[in-house]
Predict the structure.
Amino acid sequence: MDKATARHIIDASMGRTKADLVIRNAMVVDVFNCRSFLSDVYIKDGRFIGFDGDRTAEREIDAEGKYMVPGFIDSHCHIESSHLSPSEFSNAILPSGTTSVVADPHEICNVSGLDAMHYMLESAENAVLNINFMFPSCVPATFFEHSGAVLTAKEVETVIDNPKILGLGEMMNYPGVVAADDSILDKLDTCWKRGKIIDGHIPSISGQGLDAYLSTLISTDHECETPEELVEKTGKGMYVLLRQGTVCKNVEALVPGINENNWRRCLFCTDDRQPQSILREGHLSYGVNLAIKAGLDPYRAIACATINASDCYGLKERGAIAPGRFADFFLTERIDEIKPISVFVSGEKVAENGKILKRSPHVVPEKVEGAVRVKDLSLSLFSLPLTSDRARVIRILPGGVVTAKDEAVVKRDERGEWVHEKDKDILKITVIERHNNTGYHASALISGYGLKHGAIASTIAHDSHNIIVIGDNDDDMLLAVKSLKEKGGGITLVMDNKELSYHRLEIAGLMTDESVESVVECLDELHRVVEEEMGGVNREIDPFMTLCFMALPVIPAYKITDCGLFDVTEFKFVDVSL
Amino acid sequence: MDKATARHIIDASMGRTKADLVIRNAMVVDVFNCRSFLSDVYIKDGRFIGFDGDRTAEREIDAEGKYMVPGFIDSHCHIESSHLSPSEFSNAILPSGTTSVVADPHEICNVSGLDAMHYMLESAENAVLNINFMFPSCVPATFFEHSGAVLTAKEVETVIDNPKILGLGEMMNYPGVVAADDSILDKLDTCWKRGKIIDGHIPSISGQGLDAYLSTLISTDHECETPEELVEKTGKGMYVLLRQGTVCKNVEALVPGINENNWRRCLFCTDDRQPQSILREGHLSYGVNLAIKAGLDPYRAIACATINASDCYGLKERGAIAPGRFADFFLTERIDEIKPISVFVSGEKVAENGKILKRSPHVVPEKVEGAVRVKDLSLSLFSLPLTSDRARVIRILPGGVVTAKDEAVVKRDERGEWVHEKDKDILKITVIERHNNTGYHASALISGYGLKHGAIASTIAHDSHNIIVIGDNDDDMLLAVKSLKEKGGGITLVMDNKELSYHRLEIAGLMTDESVESVVECLDELHRVVEEEMGGVNREIDPFMTLCFMALPVIPAYKITDCGLFDVTEFKFVDVSL
């Protein structure tokens, strides 16, 4: 709010000047009393200025008794998971009624550090969607891999005063927090000093460990999975985020833990939602509808998706249809099954019937490229010499994120190099550092992926997003990596020395400025090619999402980074050879 | 929170070092889930660090199953109404379980401006009670009188960044806000820029006027009187404060408006509580107990008095028994009728069985005196020449705050001066500017006070706190004013040229560093003297509280300021003579 705006909206609210817009006959959802009432709603300078009253307006829209719901706030998301630039993310999610997000640019910052943060901030400034940020707290996620950047408290200090940065993102380093690790306390201190929010990330920890973690004033959790956890965590002062992502889906399991009182401390989030999920199921509204179906009162569900997020994150000018707040809202026929018909941001209609009307301008990332900086691209990168006929094997489990520790008898050639055997489901997987041309790379063996022939490579590989490539032969693997380097990031399919299909991710190798529709079309085509032309993969996994989690050394049991095969349960690198 | 503290409390929470204190067998009140559970509670460095767990502690206290309740937060009060300095206020209210207050030093700032604000801040720094402030928004309250200071946006800017100042205090100037008055927008802008809170004050206004007022992001109201108002105001985004002062008592009337959902937006406050009320009935707990008796669920009532205030005012480190928060709490046998047995602030026992254990040090106000700066103290100050035998008369109504416009036939002497008539209940009332030696003074006539003989004078006279004196003869009135000047502020009783009793208010003429017990004793003595030695006053009013509201030109109908007799309904000065 500023003086000029205040003067405009007071004058219009008092009826001395015209409002810009009036929504007539709206069934206004009051998230404070959890009720609705029929009223006109006046808007001036992008803000609500009042209900029924003696005013006039430049334009009017008849809501015809439809429910008028405050725009939803996604309390925790990674825009990168949508494969979309912030601009295209805005275009993609506004039609389903999410008008604000709290985004943690953890992925892109792992690639490009502060440059990425500034690109995201600039994109947010220009986006129609209200994009707020939490500064990523854990870049790199571990020291068992090479990310593109290291963000310490020093880097946090340079941007944390930006009002669009609400605090520190998900503090995943639980062991570091409860060990009172100095570098972590330094980061937390940037928020303590400013009263900013610190997001938590604490799956499966309860009791004393949770107490110690929370003693640092970490205040949210989006990893809550059971009703009992929800009651304990809210009871200890946390806001609990009901998550409905593409892979992690917690809403229905958590609803039984929401009671008459603790609902005020529950929010909704998507965390990671793939473009297909956004386009086909919607965004935050999908989780909200699930919660309502599971028994949560619709008004309270809406409050969780709006005013509760506003309260938690200090977004005081959003989250309710109330005088002075930004006029972010949507109209829906029903509130027990929300389907936004038209969506408004700051009093302007931005989407209708599932289609975006007001697109966000693209922002060219000057310092963030889909760079693949690998100096020597040659077959030697894929060399996997073994000292034994028995080798450790990463075994993919159904779901495709967690793996098991396996071992197998393998074949070696005269130089001791691993040799692929057609009748065995064991492939080579290689991770190549791509950010700073360090030359780090490592290969290992993996089973359960099910690819018959060829190679699949990607620049999405959580959390450091080095190149990850899987295949049955080094030639295809090399071509795949070469393609990623030439085109500047993405996902590629190669077979018999030919690129079959390619998904461009020109922004940090993670995101694209293409529309959600064309991204989904492209991903569908990739799936089709894998299935029809490459003979498919294990039906229990998604070929691309599974691949991108194989380099994440915080999820058990074996993972591979650019530094080697990592035993997550033992927390150390191990040889492939046994 | 700082790094050193964080390290201490994490270490103790993890059991690596000893906690300072453990409260064993406490029935912990969880304000988030509105339930209680039996647990030990560990405290280190003044903060809660966890519940049952594998830890040790230096000291332990057995709660023997008593309820452990977070310390209450008074969301809006004027410390000055207690007649006590912040230090003595702390000593007075802690025993009843209020451990934090949000204080608006509106009265003392009207006397001494920024000097007063700094004195209050310094006192707060040294107090055991957690004292937070809202910067007074309306000094002076009106331009129809001379206050000791004028506080504009320029003055606000000099202190608003102090973390103890949470925002701008009750914005009483409703007409100014909805007129978009420039100087008011300037003040509001100091908070908009910083995301600080703006307290409202909007009795009896609903609908369009309320909408316009709220468009400025004013977010609280403590003038709510009916359940309907409560629903409208919460529905429009306000936090509604349930007030239980000495004179203004709204709790019982508001409880029926609190429903299953809007209770989260309700807080408790005392606004103005006299020392007698504090000593005899308690502080915030009095209102909380009334609400419970009136049907509000005890857990929710406690939440309104704790976490809701924490949420509203951003006091994130208070308001709940949760890890990381300050260990402010009390033990009580019952929660359906709260009687704090022992009270703790930052983990230290500060009161027990109604008695303060840890007193706050006195802070000597260097620049804030009970100054009575009146250059010429002479009988001429009380001259009331009339040009007619008919005069306007302020008529006190039962309750003693609102007055009526009256007129009477009066007697004049040879010079035209008003002459008191023993058989008529008409007295002279005089207001003398006391802050800046301007020489402003005015006299008028008043009925309904009922004093038989003598004079009563006070340096408490809302909101400008000039000297106000009432009496039947100029000699006694002069002596009363002389006494106030000599002693530096207070309330005095004079009869037949003799001072009968005196209540010292050496701090700005409003407060004293005496204890609440001695202040109450002194006020009781004043009442006794008025009753027994001066023949009493009208039984429907309190002699001192009524007197101190006679100079407040925002409450109808006739009031007197140092500028003359003011017709509040016509909003102009009028002659005493008709």
